[in-house]
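Worked example 4.2. Below are the chains of a multi-component assembly; read each line carefully before continuing.
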Amino acid sequence: MGKYIEMIRIRFLMMLAYRTNYYSGILIYSINIGAYYFLWSAIYGNKGEIEGLSVIQMTTYIAVAWMARAFYFNNIDREIAQEIKEGKVAVEFIRPYHYLMMKTMQGLGEGIFRLSFFSIPGMFIVSLIFPIEFSAAASTWLFFTLAIILSFIVNTQINLLTGVLTFFFFNNDGLIRAKRVVIDLFSGLLLPISFYPGWAQQVMDFLPFQAISYIPSMIFTEGFQGAAVYEALLFQVVWAAILIIPIQALWIIAKKQLIVQGG
Amino acid sequence: MEKVIDVQSLRKDFKSHSSRSGLKGAFRDLFTRNYKVISAVKDISFTVNEGEMVGYIGENGAGKSTSIKMLTGILTPTSGTVRVNGMDPHKEREKFVRSIGVVFGQRSQLWWDIAVQESFRLLKKVYNVPDDVYNEHMNHVIESLDIGPLLDKPVRKLSLGQRMRCELAAALLHNPKLLFLDEPTIGLDVLVKLKIRNFLKEINEKYKTTILLTTHDLTDIEALCDRVVMLDEGQIIYDGKLAKLRSNWGEGKQIEFQFGEDVNKEKLVPLLNELEAEWTIGDRPNVFVANVVNEEHVISEVIGRVVAAHRITDIKIHEISTEEIIRNIYEEGMLNG
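Applying the procedure described above to all two chains together yields the following structure tokens:
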């Protein structure tokens, strides 16, 4: 286990080595939150609530969704694809660890870095500018913490899946880009799932994406109450478990027919 | 003696698709593709004993890298068996890789953006090296490779020679029994090369580390390896002592004459009558090379006759280099020894 924790630390150091990325990230996220705030204020107009969410809940939803994204979001699919393309994955195979586990830990290191140096101070600043409601209930915070950990797991698994597919396609930039759009759209980052038409909501119940953004944000804004919270967490846990199967299967096949490119 | 590497009729086939020509062909390629099977390694067998330093040589595309990748468990063989350190590299991967060290000259295994010592620290955790063992072993390695002052610099700021020494230290961090070096001295200057060679000799003596070295620089092989395994088109064409290779193929010397007057081959040929020697034309005007057998009286006789008959301005005696021997072998294909 020590090696995986050490990897988180290394990733932390790597993030510190690239400070410019970090500052530009803060700027991009602030612009996004601001833009969505004004968009939603315009849509709400004089209406008290839409689909059960008040305008303040909506603003909170947007702010939390973006701040949670800083934690769960990572580029490990792109990194895996690049390491495969450059043949660097050969070096990873001569190390006594599980490559995908190590990648996950790198993602986690990145997530913890952004959560502590970016989301928490960012949230504080955003709460000074926009009207945002924080829950006082300890249980909400507890459930939210659980939910974002699970959303990190589900999102990372989807990234691993897209990354490992590079073993079979060799060049899958298109797939990676498509995956990114699908996640932003279907995870509830841009629009809460409850705003989609009924049939679309039903379809999305069978897809893992809402586990990534919609569920933690709804828990934080207390859009989910009582049993709905448990159901939502169960949804995340089930998907986290299901996704292990295709990843492991693809990984085993990939290892068998691995061709190291460029050498 | 214990066998460290035991390879029996190892084979690797790659399936590669060939593109059809033209626009029409490109469209057809979208739906069906032509595949061609290429054998990179064709049924090779060899063994390496503990403490040996083996040079693994061959032209580009001879199958060196492919076979090294199978030995390290990166690639799965199409057929044949590989036992390295008593294990199957692919099946017991995690346990197996703890017992080997690998340096790929063209690929860094250190983390690019962070200080060298952070990479070492991570590798120490990865290989579960206890503190006291690490300190004793690594202090020695760091000192011999003279990388102490580099430890707090990020890898991207190191020069190639500095980086290579750090790579070597990283590969030896867990003190592996077997070390694979894939072109470790590529692009390095003479001083760094010497330092690396001396270091490799030292660890080979101290820990009985077995070393398998691939390189295009034959001086590395001459300096380090007693034994060479030579590959050509996926097959082993020579496996044995370097000295034997030299004596079979490198018999004889070359005497290069720079003449002070215009000469031609017809004038020179009679001089070598009844001697085991022949002329080749040199690379400059009025330079001729006499290829002679390595025997005192022949060499003196050739020089004596030439000097008596013509005026010369310069004379050099060369021994045939390993490089030339190997070039000859590749050009002529198979080995007769």
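Take a moment to check your reading of the output against the notes. The first strand of chain A starts at residue 49 and ends at 50. Chain A has twelve helices and two strands.
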